[in-house]
Amino acid sequence: MFGYVRPVLNRLSEDDRAAYQSAYCGLCRAMGRRYGWMARFTLNYDFAFLAILLSGGQGGGNTCAARCPAHPLRAPRTCLCGPGLDVAADESMVLTYHKLTDDVYDHGLLTGLPYRLVRLLFRRPYRRAARARPDFDRQVRDGLERLRRLEGAASPELDRVADAFAGILACAAQGQVDGAGDRRAMEQLLYHLGRWIYLADAWDDLEQDARRGRYNPLEARFAGRAKQERAYVETTLTHSVRLVAAAANLISFGRWTPVVENVVYAGLPAVQGAVLDGRWNEMRATRRIREKQINERSV
User: Fold this and answer.
1) Is the Cβ–Cβ distance between 268 and 5 less than 8 Å?
2) What is the mean pLDDT of the chain?
3) Quick one: which of 212, 221, 197 has its CA closest to 44?
4) 165-169, 178-182, 203-207, 236-240 — which is least confidently predicted?
5) Under 8 Å CB-to-CB from 225, ≥6 apart: which residues?
6) Are 86 and 30 spatial neighbours (Cβ–Cβ below 8 Å)?
7) Which of 88, 107, 155, 266 is the most buried (most CB within 10 A)?
């Protein structure tokens, strides 16, 4: 996952902001408890949002103040437990390991060495996660193999390639959501969110992929003139966000409704605009400072 799926914190109420932060911290602790302290370094906003989506509308109330190495001088509120935290921790570890495997394939023997070393460190935690979520692990492996074949063939079929990645994220809902209607809506939400992530990342990587001679689905689709097709890319990204919103409207998120709505209606469009304008890295650095200040004020 890539860290694109995040809220706009200053547009959340103080209570909702504190609840989101407690879910983020709670997932960090769940990952550390289940997979060791190194697993905490893989935490990002995408995984925190996944935990909230899989919470069944519960959580956010049972919190306590707890110190951690990242915040040695203060004790942020953290979720003690929640239906989505352990599942999100397991699925996050599975996704992280397979993403590292994909990076090894992408970077070759020498440049891929750092990814091989990191993957080796996460092998045992991954195996525990795979035992905990065997169906999810199998579906992720199968989906990434399909994606790898398409990318290896330099497929110009943008929808097929994006569909392969989107299907991987949709699997995260299987067996975790009660009710056929809610489960189908959640699968659709995650599917279109995955499609949006994949295409946003492809645009963000255009220049880097061109320098390194790597496959990029947008360049393959537009025969090397993807930058001239910004309007098309913006339209398809916006369409995916609208489908995420449509699916989210069919699900009751309970206490997390304001946070989910903030991410869908404010966070995704803000990140999309920054990615398309080439401001994403700058935006991340600026928001990291601002969010740290907001979080410190909310403790």
Assistant:
1) yes
2) 88
3) 197
4) 178-182
5) none
6) yes
7) 88
Question: Is 204 a residue whose pLDDT tops 80?
Answer: yes
What is the 3-state secondary structure of the chain? CCCCCCCCHHHCCHHHHHHHHHHHHHHHHHHHHHHCHHHHHHCCHHHHHHHHHCCCCCCCCCEEECCECCECCCCCEEECCCHHHHHHHHHHHHHHHHHHHHHHHHHHHHHCHHHHHHHHHCHHHHHHHHHHCHHHHHHHHHHHHHHHHHHHCCCCCHHHHHHHHHHHHHHHHCCCCCCHHHHHHHHHHHHHHHHHHHHHHHHHCHHHHHHHCCCCHHHHHCCCCHHHHHHHHHHHHHHHHHHHHHHHCCCCCHHHHHHHHHHHHHHHHHHHHHHHHCCHHHHHHHHHHHHHHHHHHHC
pLDDT band, very low/low/confident/very high, at 298 (cuts 50, 70, 90): very low
Report the amino acid identity of residue 274: A
Token pair recorded at residue 96: 């992280």
pTM for the model stands at 0.89
Strand partners, 64: 78
- Domains of the chain in start order, with CATH, are 9-206+217-298 (1.10.600)
Split at pLDDT 50, 70, 90, the class of 286 is low
Residue 191: count of CB within 10 angstroms of its CB = 23
Q: Which residues contact 104 (CB under 8 A, 6 or more apart)?
A: 112, 115, 116, 119
Do 197 and 237 form a contact (C-beta atoms < 8 A)? no
pLDDT band at 180 (very low <50, low <70, confident <90, very high): confident
